[in-house]
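Q: Hi! First time doing this. I have a protein sequence and I read that you can turn it into a structure. Is that right? Here it is:
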Amino acid sequence: MSDFDVDLFVIGGGSGGVRAARIAAGYGAKVMLAEEYRVGGTCVIRGCVPKKLMVYAGRFADEFEDAAGFGWTVEKPRFDWATLKRRRDAEVTRLEGIYDTNLIRAGVEIAPERAVIEDPHTVRLLTSGRTIRAERILVAVGAHPVKEPAVPGIGLAITSNEVFELESLPERILVIGGGYIAVEFAGVFAALGSATTLLHRGAGLLRGFDDEVRDALAEAYSHRMDLRLGRTLTGIERRDGALCARLDDGSEIRVDQVLIATGRKPNVAGLGLDRVGIEVDAAGAIPVDAYSQTKVPSIYAVGDVTNRANLTPVAIREGHAFADTVYGGKPTCVDHHLIPTAVFSTPEIGVVGHSEAVARELYGTIDVYKARFRPMKATLSGRDERILMKVIVACATDRVVGVHIVGHDAGEVIQAVGIAVTMGATKADFDRTIAVHPTAAEELVTLRVPEVTKHPVGVG
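A: Yes, that's right. Below is the predicted 3D structure, encoded as structure tokens:
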């Protein structure tokens, strides 16, 4: 008889935890999973999936406007927030049901309550009071949005959790932040008709992205909304039925909602890590090794709670790799250095590999191939729109080490490009690929002359 009730206990029913539980069960492990809110996690319930549906909704505004240039007569469209909310929420519920069903079919027992760690092999379910002995424990509890800066009145603001609960479209909204979440929600509300202000303390949006990508987005957003860079929030107060946000330059912005999207922190509070001697790092994350194992051999962690690369596909890959390693006999590490990613702003952004600045530091001499052009669709629609495509090549090896796209369907394009870059494609490989014409993406394989050869710092 085993000393354990289950082989694996997973705390957290988000993307990483669900994948790990299902794959481990497929290898024959007895698995139990606890989720205190809704199975599906941030991405499915109140993150990328419902947000992407809102992005789609907002982009119809441009489509209706562009149709006239192609001969269509469209009556002035009207947007109904309640309809979008109802249908979006129904789709989230449908997906949640699929996640539940897939776990049950795999043989995973689901406990719809909060679980905490008691010792290296024991978890306690807080609602039922049950204790479960597990050979291994996997922590996959994700992260939560924080309200920063901690200025007076910050409690009047909402986060990316509460934004999905809004019963009406705000006429005026202030979005604070400069990362993925802030940029995407600012784009959504501006497209749906809200008078939108995007406030960020930095000099540019999307820190860590290629500078030309950042500049292209800022230029586009400056025409779609009130973009205020280099400014900070100093306070919020309710005044005459509205929210009045004060800035560090003494100005005030009157809005109906303030959305704080300045960062997220791992969900480690009250988890019981202290009971087993696991100390979180400066960011509040659980330290793990390349196989997602903590300093306690029986306890592992994947996803945003480890703060390695806070993206849903990364959490899924980490969860799968954990199950392959521990239960499948296939030791697997996840490469966190080359991750294709997209920002669902409007215009959309797709990136894989290094920015120009980082590539210069890593590889010395690089070639930069670049194209800026007006997409074919804009020639008839009349929209003032530009696409940016940028390919960065390490001269010593001819390898493509960075691809950056700003424009329609950049996320879709970068997924395919990511395969080539991950495989180590060279510029010669790109060059000998026949273009698909007429498409915007063909520019990636027709760029022949580098804009300029970039040398290491200090080299003439």
